[in-house]
Amino acid sequence: HSFFFRFYVDQALSPAQSYSTMTSEDSAKLEEDDTSSTRCKQVMSVLIRKQFFQGKKNKKTKLNQKFDLRAFKRILWKYYPQSFNTPPQNTDLVDLVDRLLECYSLENSFQITKTHLAEMGKNKLVEYVDTLCLRNEVRYELAESLKQKYGEVCEDFGGEKRPFDDVHTTLKIVSTCDNGPNIEHEVMKIGKLDSNQEAPKEISTADILTPNYLETSSSRFILLTGVAGSGKSMAVRRLVLDWIEERAHKHVTFLFPLPFRELKQFEGEKLSLADIVKKLYPATEKLRDEDYRCDECQMMFVFDGLDEYHWKIDFENTELLSDPTDTSNLKVIVVNLMRARLLYRGLFLVTTRPYVRACVPWDAHYDEIEVLGFRDTQRDEYFQKRFKDSSQAARVIEYINSTKTLRVMCHLPLFCSIVANECQRIFKEKGTHAELPNGITYMYTKLLFALLRQHRKWRAPENSVDKERDFLMKLGKLALSMLEQGQYKIAQTDWKEHDINDQEAVPYTGLCTQYVTKPYVLFHENVLSFIHPTMQEYLAALYALLTFANLGKNVFEEKLKNKVKGMFRGPTPSEMYKNAVDRCLQCEDGRLDIFLRFLFGMTLKTNQELLQPFFTSPLKWPTATEDAAALIRKRMKDSQNPERNRNLQCCLKELGSRSLGSVSSLTDC
């Protein structure tokens, strides 16, 4: 036999798990004295009671010291007769621990145990227990700090913070990469854009870098990719909170989230990875250098947002760094992390938009997984959690289900958040039964600005409006050209011919994504796509509108006809929309249907107000909406194609409720 501390322990048990073994009396004592040192000893004492029995049956003990339980009993009965007055032979281990805790405070019980273990020559055991106590104390304080930082999110329109679990749901994460964008479409049946033949296996954040994974894989570095707004940071938050609450990664002693957004403050400084951890999490000041190197002290580092790191990642000319306590600079630390050289015992998770993955060298040893956003059921669950009022949640779910395009685009958590914010604002200002935005253009315009400005600011210097406009014009021109050809992906080599900055398109704004296809054996090709085909259609419509409004050109007119007309007068809005409708009706496969809806939707005043920064001069189209509605009704009368008429009905819906007139059956547009 051995006493309390002879058990198998890989790391200090977390307070969350330790407290779950306490009696109500233990908890009451805990509240009386909340100093960190006392709290540590309290946790360790309760840990003793639980862990001994696991260790008794486990042959793989960390400290297999021969110990005579009877001898320890004799010491207790000798020095504390007032507490131990029953026959010692009738007292087993659990009774002994319980009796100590009944008679003495948890801290005193701990000190009594340590004192007499040392007296019996078990100094290594005492040192080991002190180490566990120190780590457990740091872990507790780290967990409390992370809970404050990650436990609540500000999702509500009014800025109210709510527990993360009360707002967000699970994400769809798959074990494969290069899956390409979501191609589900309301009108078109788009062929598979990627060439990934491997069936993706769904996993959760709890499956990342687990003990089972580490036994079967030599990689301790995971790259989590995903398009803009797909939920990468949400996955990180879920992983952190599950670790805090002991729902997953129980083998990890310390988990350190290190967002690149926060690491930027250390640019230009000389420091080590351990220094960074201590500055971001002061509770870790108590950790010693050997704790970072110890096999029993498993550490996981989570680096969120590699796409926000704007320094060049130079894998060829960067010095080797393998010790987390060695001083260097941030660039060297990041490169060695990506090389999986720094802290080779550690576990690393890095999240990024797909473009940055191309910066990782081919010989870097890592595994890659991808987050794809929400499934159908998770979209509904998100809105049900987001809105405290169930009637409001039901209205929002009904709203996104009324238009398949909205429903599909809600696979992106970012888009769900935008829809929820707008609906919440309307409910707050006008009441629960207020009319929600017609059509799809308004929400897509909100998404454009979220990506182009709010999310971009963390990744690149602020752009002027002129540069934004120029970028959107180039990207929109390409989008329209590809759309008319029925093309939804483009090789990176062809992309450069269009004079579009791929860094601006993929990692900065996130309007596009990059992935690898394998069209032939032993041939890999980098290709780019828009984050969804409907985003391609939206940008194409925006290009057509800005070309007309700013340059006075109609992109739908034949070149010769345009030259002749240009000699006399410029095109009118009615002519542009007439040409657009005619071009759309010529496409039997419906490839321009959603594009046309966006183009008409941009006629609406509310959408033009949002897009105003991109117009070089104020628009003067006082009757544009009425003229567009009249044109659509005329074309609906003339057309004999039910599918084309259905899309024209949806275009009418984009113009607002006043334009609907007597047109019926506008659902599912």
TrEMBL record:
<dbReference type="Pfam" id="PF17779">
    <property type="entry name" value="WHD_NOD2"/>
</dbReference>
<dbReference type="InterPro" id="IPR027417">
    <property type="entry name" value="P-loop_NTPase"/>
</dbReference>
<keyword id="KW-0963">Cytoplasm</keyword>
<dbReference type="InterPro" id="IPR041267">
    <property type="entry name" value="NLRP_HD2"/>
</dbReference>
<dbReference type="InterPro" id="IPR007111">
    <property type="entry name" value="NACHT_NTPase"/>
</dbReference>
<dbReference type="InterPro" id="IPR041075">
    <property type="entry name" value="NOD1/2_WH"/>
</dbReference>
<dbReference type="GO" id="GO:0005737">
    <property type="term" value="C:cytoplasm"/>
</dbReference>
<dbReference type="InterPro" id="IPR051261">
    <property type="entry name" value="NLR"/>
</dbReference>
<dbReference type="Pfam" id="PF17776">
    <property type="entry name" value="NLRC4_HD2"/>
</dbReference>
<dbReference type="InterPro" id="IPR011029">
    <property type="entry name" value="DEATH-like_dom_sf"/>
</dbReference>
<protein>
    <recommendedName>
        <fullName>NACHT domain-containing protein</fullName>
    </recommendedName>
</protein>
<dbReference type="InterPro" id="IPR029495">
    <property type="entry name" value="NACHT-assoc"/>
</dbReference>
<keyword id="KW-0067">ATP-binding</keyword>
<dbReference type="Pfam" id="PF05729">
    <property type="entry name" value="NACHT"/>
</dbReference>
<dbReference type="GO" id="GO:0005524">
    <property type="term" value="F:ATP binding"/>
</dbReference>
<keyword id="KW-0433">Leucine-rich repeat</keyword>
<keyword id="KW-0677">Repeat</keyword>
<feature type="domain" description="NACHT">
    <location>
        <begin position="220"/>
        <end position="354"/>
    </location>
</feature>
<keyword id="KW-0547">Nucleotide-binding</keyword>
